[in-house]
Amino acid sequence: MAKVGIIMGSDSDLEIMSKAAEVLEQLGVDYEMTIISAHRMPDIFYDYAKSAEEKGMKVIIAGAGGAAHLPGMCAAIFPMPVVGVPIYTKSLGGVDSLYSIVQMPGGIPVATVAINGGLNAGLLAAKILATSDEELLGKLKAYSESMKEKVVEKAEKLEKIGYKEYLK
């Protein structure tokens, strides 16, 4: 049964939102992903958000650009955490999306990551689930250790060969 729902308003958001799916797969977290629009198909969107809990969802990650209603509307309907991913827009660089998502009214919280922050949305969803899952917590700790090791390796390489050679 799915634990995380990943939704986006358009297939143009898929490249960003797939990063959430990739990290959830790496951590062994079940998810489902779909394209759904709060504006173009409000009845289908409402049914999705209303039934997500029954389908075993514990967190929804919602990516949205422009008016960016998807995360906030999810949070208004779905009783568990929603993580909003503001998507970069050509007209305003995603700042419009960011403002739409972070300016939720009192009582309707949406955790929000950086513009195009699909990876961090996946990690945040996993961290939320890890509060009651020791095995997942261990995987997250290993993921963090792996990131640290990669940075240490790069630092050692830079120190060994110098920046000019490093950049080649």
Write a structural description.
Helix content is 51%, strand content 14%. It has a 5-stranded parallel beta sheet, sandwiched between helices. It has helices spanning 14-27, 42-51, 70-77, 95-102, 118-130, 134-161, 163-166, and strands spanning 4-8, 31-35, 59-64, 82-86, 111-112. It has 168 residues and is α/β, with parallel strands linked by helices. Strand 3 (59-64), helix 3 (70-77) and strand 4 form a beta-alpha-beta unit. Helix 1 (14-27) runs parallel beside helix 5 and helix 5 packs across helix 6 (134-161). The mean pLDDT is 96. The longest helix has 28 residues, at 134-161. The radius of gyration is 18 Å and the shape is globular.
In brief, what are we looking at here?
The protein has seven helices and five strands, in the order E-H-E-H-E-H-E-H-E-H-H-H. The protein is of the alpha/beta class and 168 residues long. The radius of gyration is 18 Å and the shape is globular.
- Determine the N-to-C terminus distance: 47 Å
Strand order of the largest sheet: 2-1-3-4-5
Average predicted local confidence, pLDDT:
96
How many helix segments? 7
* Share of residues in helices: 40-55%
Structural class: alpha/beta
Query: Would you list the SSEs in sequence order as H and E?
Result: EHEHEHEHEHHH
Q: What is the makeup of the main sheet?
A: 5 strands, parallel
Question: Which outline best applies?
Answer: globular
Compute the gyration radius: what is it? 18 Å
Number of strand segments: 5
| Low-pLDDT residue intervals, each spanning 5 or more residues | none
Quote the beta fraction.
5-15%
